[in-house]
Design a protein that fits this description.
The chain is mostly helical and about 130 residues long. The protein has a single domain, classed as Ferritin, CATH 1.20.1260.10. The protein is elongated, with a radius of gyration of 15 Å. It contains 5 helices and no strands.
Length: about 130
Amino acid sequence: MLKTTQMGQVGIRVVMPYAARADLKKALTSQLKEYDEIEREVYSIASSRGLDIKELDPMAKMMSKAYAHANLTFGNIDSKIAAMMIQGNTRGMIKNLKSQHHGIKDDAGVSSLLQKLLNCEEANIQQMQGFV
């Protein structure tokens, strides 16, 4: 869950400077705030349970940045940003659904936060569809 959230944060921060439309920038800013909040909740739950959680690998961050920069060089940049966000949220949903089906249900706090993240990703996809 933490890695998915951090990947969303990285992705948004990378594409934000390329966004031309003010309403797209506003949507991305809102999504980033949601990811920031979920990340704080992940750390809070982990801390309260004495869990050591692994952060997103720096290589994954670097690869995400390189991919975004390569894809945002020409054409309808806002549409490309929206498509990339939809793809990223879809991957995050798949990863988190797999987690949900593999024992996360045993912890109500984690399960609730995971559902919040899934709902966030679904809403993000819906929001970005208007920009494709």
